[in-house]
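Reviewer 2 asked us to include a model.

Predict the structure of this chain.
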Amino acid sequence: MLFTYGILGLPSWQDFQPFLVTGLSLGGVYALSGVGMVVLYRATGVLNLAFGAVGAMGALIAWSLINHSGWNEWLAYAVCVLFGGVLTLIYGMVFGPALAKRDPLVKATATLGLTLILLGVMDLLWTSSGGASRSITLPTDNDTFMVSGILVEYTNVIALALGLAITVGTSAFLRYTKLGTAMRAMANDREITATLGVPVRRVEAAAWFGCGLLSGLAGILLADLVALDATTLTFLVLSSLAATIIGQLRSIPITFIAALVVGTVDAMITPINSITNYRDMTPFVLAAAALLLFNRKRVIAVGRTGI
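Predicted model (structure tokens):
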């Protein structure tokens, strides 16, 4: 892409505009991913680092069904989402009870093993050798409209809208439903919640399954917006993870806002030649800055109370 540079050596606003659209749509996907990770963490204490790998494998399954088995596209995408839910549920039901008794560090890294296994399986079944090219193109990519001279695909709108809808819907679910209340109670004390008669295993199963469904949905969207590549999709979870860290693994609204910021800043850096090679550092830099800010506020608060 050809960029025009201004007085300060930066691309013009017209050059940034397409990346703004891309950044907001990616931010929406990061948001729905972050929400899934936060809900699972609050209910079980497990940080699902396999979120991206599950979505990547689901997207590759959908691609195979469409291109090699002749399946209807939407049916194949539904299989991707369901695959994510079922696989994550099975993992949670098999290893969840054991993880519940382990310390936070073990819970945070437990899903790394699943990530590596899925990466190995994807490399075996969908080898990238020989220059094989795969892609998922949603039908909504062909429907576009203009906003202030910016070409916008309906896929971009759908990605952002889904992120917002899932954020609002999940917040309402946790606040106003019995299952959501049980999840919030488990986040505070699992043992006490169990003694109150809450079906802990069912609540955990719902959290694992819901997180898996969102991973499959994110996999399809990211395969269209970024690339259908197992490694790329697997490690895009880091952007969602940065958003959850900024939200302190608790606040869903803050996670949503942080995801939009991470996606937008990352995309807007792309046309700046002097720093574009460092854009992959964006999630880490933003998360580190947020942690430093939170820690500074905590230190100031403690200093004022004299504790």
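Residues 299-303 have pLDDT under 50 and may be disordered. Strands lie at 144-147, 150-153. We have added this to the supplementary material.
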